[in-house]
Specification:
- The complex is a heterotetramer, with two copies of chain A and two copies of chain C.
- Chain A is α/β, with parallel strands linked by helices.
- Chain A has a single domain (about 10-305), classed as 3-Layer(aba) Sandwich (Rossmann fold), CATH 3.40.50.970.
- Chain A is about 45% helix and about 10% strand.
- Chain A contains 13 helices and seven strands.
- In chain A, strands 1-2-3-7-6 form a five-stranded parallel β-sheet, sandwiched between helices. Chain A has a two-stranded antiparallel ribbon with strand order 4-5.
- In chain A, helix 1 runs parallel beside helix 12 and helix 5 runs parallel beside helix 6.
- Chain A is globular, with a radius of gyration of 19 Å.
- Chain C has two domains: about 1-185, Rossmann fold, CATH 3.40.50; about 195-325, Rossmann fold, CATH 3.40.50.920.
- Chain C contains twelve helices and 14 strands.
- In chain C, helix 7 (about 150-160) links the parallel strand 6 and strand 7.
- In chain C, helix 3 packs across helix 4 (about 90-100) and helix 8 (about 210-225) crosses helix 12.
- The longest helix of chain C is centred in the first third of the chain and has 15 residues, at about 5-20.
- The chains are: A alpha/beta, C alpha/beta.
- Chains in contact: A-B, A-C, A-D, B-C, B-D, C-D.
- The interface between C and D is large, with 57 and 57 residues.
- Chains C, D: InterPro entries: THDP-binding (IPR029061), Transketo_C/PFOR_II (IPR009014), Transketolase-like_Pyr-bd (IPR005475), Transketolase_C (IPR033248).
- Chains C, D: This is Pyruvate dehydrogenase E1 component beta subunit.
- Chains C, D: It is an enzyme of class 1 (oxidoreductase).
- Chains C, D: Its cofactor is thiamine diphosphate.
Amino acid sequence: MTTTTTTITETGLWQAMVEARAFDQAMCRHNGHWHEARGEEAVFVGAFAELGPDDVVAPHFRGACAVALQRGSSPATLAAGVFGTDASSSGGHWRGDICPAPGPRSVGMFSGSLGTSVAYATGAALHLSRTSPGAVAVCGFGDGTANSGIVAESLNLAAMLGLPVVYVCQDNQYATSLPSAVALAGERVSDRARALGIPATDVDGNDVLAVRDAIGEAVARARAGAGPSFVHALTYRMGGHYMNDPETYRSPEEVAAWAERDPIARLQDQLVARGELTADDATAQVRAADERMEAIVAAAKGASDAALVRATSPYAEDLRSAS
Amino acid sequence: MTTTTTTITETGLWQAMVEARAFDQAMCRHNGHWHEARGEEAVFVGAFAELGPDDVVAPHFRGACAVALQRGSSPATLAAGVFGTDASSSGGHWRGDICPAPGPRSVGMFSGSLGTSVAYATGAALHLSRTSPGAVAVCGFGDGTANSGIVAESLNLAAMLGLPVVYVCQDNQYATSLPSAVALAGERVSDRARALGIPATDVDGNDVLAVRDAIGEAVARARAGAGPSFVHALTYRMGGHYMNDPETYRSPEEVAAWAERDPIARLQDQLVARGELTADDATAQVRAADERMEAIVAAAKGASDAALVRATSPYAEDLRSAS
Amino acid sequence: MSRMTMSEAIVAAIADAMTADPSVYLMGQDIGVFGGPMQSTKGLWDSFGAQGRVIDAPISEAAMVGTAVGAAMAGSRPIVDLMFAEFLALTMTPLGLEGSAVAFRTRGEVTVPLVVRAKCGVGPHRGHAESCVGMLLAFPGLKVAMPTTPQDAYSLTRAAIRDDNPVVLLEHMSLLHGARAEVDRTLDVRLGAADIRRPGRDLTIAASGLMVQRAVRAAKDLAADGVEAEVVDLRSLAPLDTALVRASAERTGALLVAEESWPGSGPAAALCAALLGDGDRLGFPVRLLQPPPTPVPFAASLESAFVPSVADIADAARALHAPVKGTVTA
Amino acid sequence: MSRMTMSEAIVAAIADAMTADPSVYLMGQDIGVFGGPMQSTKGLWDSFGAQGRVIDAPISEAAMVGTAVGAAMAGSRPIVDLMFAEFLALTMTPLGLEGSAVAFRTRGEVTVPLVVRAKCGVGPHRGHAESCVGMLLAFPGLKVAMPTTPQDAYSLTRAAIRDDNPVVLLEHMSLLHGARAEVDRTLDVRLGAADIRRPGRDLTIAASGLMVQRAVRAAKDLAADGVEAEVVDLRSLAPLDTALVRASAERTGALLVAEESWPGSGPAAALCAALLGDGDRLGFPVRLLQPPPTPVPFAASLESAFVPSVADIADAARALHAPVKGTVTA
Ligand SMILES: Cc1ncc(C[n+]2csc(CCOP(=O)(O)OP(=O)(O)O)c2C)c(N)n1
Ligand SMILES: Cc1ncc(C[n+]2csc(CCOP(=O)(O)OP(=O)(O)O)c2C)c(N)n1
Ligand SMILES: [Mg+2]
Ligand SMILES: [Mg+2]
């Protein structure tokens, strides 16, 4: 069993959420194509916080940049990837918003088509089970994505083969305009996993500690060779599906009610109450993160894409010999 | 609510099974490409017996000809369809074994690719719900097919829209060589439907009366506008997956044990015990059916395909103007 | 007559069809109260939502198309709004392999009158540019239409809904919300018929989608040099109107095909095969202008270098026109 | 050296690769104790089953290929036995749209070394004949190989496993269990290279799969009439070796393309586009011999009328050869 797991403090989790939101909000200001993740930080920060470098991540697209940040990507490189400019790691060939740091330990969306990344994570887990016992793949996907056929197929395959993978349904209650309460037939989406014999938990997705604990259990099970798990984290998309979403499909009251349950404020209140953080320090840290990300994203937005070189072959060997 | 339901007696069910097996066994003797359905008759005869002409059927490929027989297709036409000769209804354009009588009330496989017919049945149910309240679609599929993504997607859609459709999993315990006990992760495949809020039953698929009753309840629910249902019928494929299957994946003992539970013998014993059928009469009827189907299938096998005309356009308008 | 964008014209054609024929219904993601991705179903929810004929679907494209195939066989005339053409890749078994084969398999007795709408193309919506048109052309029985004007958008949508075969309607995102133009709701356009968008005598430029618009602009540039290009809007990518293209090129003496789709498969390759394959020698040279055989790159600068520009088209036309007409150069 | 059928040669290449490289594993339906559909994995279960490297999959083709893409990115070199090529239509998102784009999107830093095996073609197994090759050619980054001899079956399978790009191996059911021939396990064949199967001076016949075998037979018939046909086995359908075909046809003066795939999309159309599209006139006439643009009919008689026969190929070659060489007939 590998011991790559790092332990992050509760303050560290709070900081990761603050940083995630700072990047996210800076993108909202500067990028009309951004998909805002405000309100959902507890899910993706909690789900991916404790993984090590040998583990594979396949986060949901909403929050994917935050996961890359957490795993050490530079925000400037990530921002360049989102804008598709010179400093991007893909040389402008790829949309850096939805799979910001592709690599052998980070598999994600490779077109704009949802669902497949759940299979990729499952396949990565198969690879891990053969080559790195103790390593695990963690895979996030939205409530909407949960309905696509390849998700059902992948879960069945993982259960059948006992693969070390943790599925995290980031249920922000909407697939664009369609409420998950309507689109996800049945009482609980986690029952779909249970029906396959996959241990499943339902957690408050606005409570980062609850998410971390649920994932921790699931990860431990996977590392021990006991197969896949499923975590359903109920949260809320505080912003629109994308910038300028008219949001005709939900009421301002509903949005306001969920704003009361902001995951960052919630943990912050706990930390302050416990004396692990002062309100002033929290405000200062938030401001510092916001300012840092604002500067990085603004600079990235203004950066040039003049030096990008267009690949004219899709084949690995041609791309390598060209570079 | 339409009242197209016909009521078939228990002797009628027995006769339908006898006829199904007679056709099936004649095909085994004459067609090397046939997929034997022996042992599974209680599922497809029981599932489709009580439907009316306004209802849509989409049987599993194994047993599809029996369902067509039940709904009034001539065995000679069906046999010609299987061999692809002059008398076939498709003029030789289609494999008559897996979707023997395509039409607005019989939708099925249109290539050799499994799974899609579950979506077709679901769509037909959507059509029925809009145009013929009270009508229902009944859809059969194998345990192996149950794992394909489009099945999961279709069930979710049917549950979400409350469609009048009954899903029947004809679990003969194998997908070719892969046991359903291995491939269908989880305790019971019916739990997948339950997870979607779809009422589900598990029945003895070698007991045609139990199948008929379970389907009857499900059909009544659909006719009443109460949405989809799922019936899992456990049965056994007494023959190979196809002719000349080496069957290296299971033991002769297992096959022999299930032969004891032959659904036809089982109902026959009950009918004889109750005095509704004499053993002699039963034997005579079986022999008559066998002789009739043997003659029909043998004749079909010898028939010519000389007069078939090859369509050279796939478009509806060209095909119509050509005929 | 009223002035509409292409997007409005498609919606109008659907609304008119739904009003006239109760067997028409629409399924798609976010097509209800949301009004459709990029307003693709604007107003339809208000008119037909209460009748259950505008159905918001979960993310399950194979089942969206699969249920539509089943409903179509049973008697409906469904329209599936698939949002983006790249999602067509999720639906090829029910749509291409099976739905498009039913009429053939039953010799026309059972049909699948189904329309699948799909947005594609480089442009305002970063990402989702792939049309996957080569994949569509690989399945016999599937028709593919791609309007470039509000009138064609209306008339081709209507024709697609009336057609008894599955039809994919490719809606180019750079054209959908372009200029409004008069739309005559009584005008029929047959699926399978190309159209001469601009007459000319010196060479033929065949194109579809955004490339038609760019070809017309290139033709204006060329006209300034005294070269009169005829622009053929393919409109129907399957079946292809090879006869019209051939006749035009035989008249003008040269054919330039400008396409946004990948080489190797798609309308340009299909056209070449149809023109070339009968063993006769072509009386005119052919030049294909297409992106390289790679996925669509993301960066704005790369994307615009990827797709033929107005200048690329004009330059290629000049080069093709330059050799003395009729000379065999090889 | 040992004598093998094509099927045995493919299995041998897989076994050798699995022995040499622990990152190679195999997933497919009925590939375990059953030995693979049509014996496609005969013996592999005994050698590698206990190591968990021969994985029996449930019916879930999208996930089979999707997990393979993920495993390949993570460091494995998976082989998916998809059984029949028509099931490729279930996998186009992970295989075509995404898996084949990863190397491009990451500029070669992340690759998807994946082989997908798929049986196709008319022949002994009634049904499942569709190769869907046009669909495959629609996705840049995907390689497609189709061996026609035991040697090529071995060498191309090995090359496919070693390749860092996704490769589809199309295995023609009428050839797989044909005659045995010597296989040299040291011989390399590059993906992307066509081969001259029979030299000739009078015309070129380019073909793939079963059509190569028929073209060679037709060439024998033609030789009896004094016409020497050169037969080019395309072998690699993507990328296509246009250069070899062009050079051959320029030398012989005429090109006949015999294909089992549908017109409009597939290797024949891709070849036409590549030959024709540069604006130069071809120095030789081209004739395509393909099935009509319909699904494969079922009846034995219809199926055999559907696909070009030896006689069809010989007749088309004669007609193409008949006009005085070099004359423009249009
Ligand atoms: C296969 C597929 N279908 C549809 C879409 C269009 N689409 C993009 S985001 C989105 C909503 C996704 O919902 P969910 O999975 O809940 O994620 P969320 O946006 O809520 O984070 C949709 C439908 C897509 N990208 N891929
Ligand atoms: C999508 C797809 N994958 C694989 C196959 C090959 N195949 C044909 S029958 C069969 C077994 C099907 O199992 P099941 O659904 O249980 O039906 P059964 O054969 O047991 O009646 C398989 C795998 C297929 N036809 N379609
Ligand atoms: Mg969501
Ligand atoms: Mg079965």
